[in-house]
Amino acid sequence: MKTCPLRTSVIGSYSFPSWLEFASSNLGSFGSKDLAEIQDDAVIAALHDQNLAGLDVVTDGEQTRLDFNLSFYGYLDGIELESASPRLFGPPAHDQRGKHQVVGEITAPRGLGVVEEYQRLVRLQKPFPDAPPVTLKASVPGPYTMSGRLLPNAQYEDRWALTEALLPFVRQELEGLVEAGCTEISVDEPSMSCYAYKEDSKRFVDIFNRTVESVVGRTRLCTHLCFGNFKGHAVGYRRIAPMFPEFLDFKCDEMHVEMASREFSEIELISKIAERMDVAVGIVDVKSYFIETPEDIANRVRLCLEHAPADRLVFAPDCGLSQTARWAAKKKLVNMVEGVKLVKQELNIES
Ligand SMILES: [Zn+2]
What is the pTM of this model? Predict the structure, then answer.
């Protein structure tokens, strides 16, 4: 699955426009047709910003995962929604998201909804005139990450058991995406990068590889590894060294790592990834409102080139942009693509 050198990409999510946030908290005020229109409009807005930036890879911005019922957990039978955040006051942090109870056998009779999202993306993507072709990417959380918001019980006694229960649903969704013609899929496992320092990382690799095994070679497979981003706050131990060497055995074509918010600490480790697969470097800090200039980005690209060859490098923000205000997300993407282009020109790489 070869791609162009110094490719520009994104992680799945994008900022919600203000009206979408308002609509999400007032869903009861809309009919089903209104809601379908809202979902289409939101994806059109996310695509507009990404196409304007001139990215090589775009997504639907995960704009339609509006609330519990429209997210993966809403597609699962056998779980009960956490009724309210367990902590309402104090600074924002991951503990405010709480966990869902498992009340029966976990099943996913309607899949996880990502195939429908991908079909909507295909229907709505309208490239700007004379724009080069872009790749449409779908993203699915991996089973370990998804299990993090479910509470173990007598039937599923720990997080590993919950992961095993979810794994077949993710695998089936990946197969559905490939059958729907999706040529690039990211299986996001940020919980694996967050906990690599203390959990059995070989076990993570086994879980990842079993999740993707039936689609390996049939699509470009990516993974996104980061240290969490809830309202701009990280949650993990922010070192990538504990992931190595085990994570190099992930069966994927592209591995994404968070770098910008960590001031490119451990950048030398991307060379290890580049020996095995493409490495997508988080080159834009999604948690900071400092807007990187194209020249800042170009300098970061040059730094990455000291550790990995151009044809192995992909650039993206550190994480999805859902926790970044849209005005900033827009500027950051424009400057990211602009900065990468500066280096492409220096190296005579066609855009
Ligand atoms: Zn992330």
Answer: 0.96
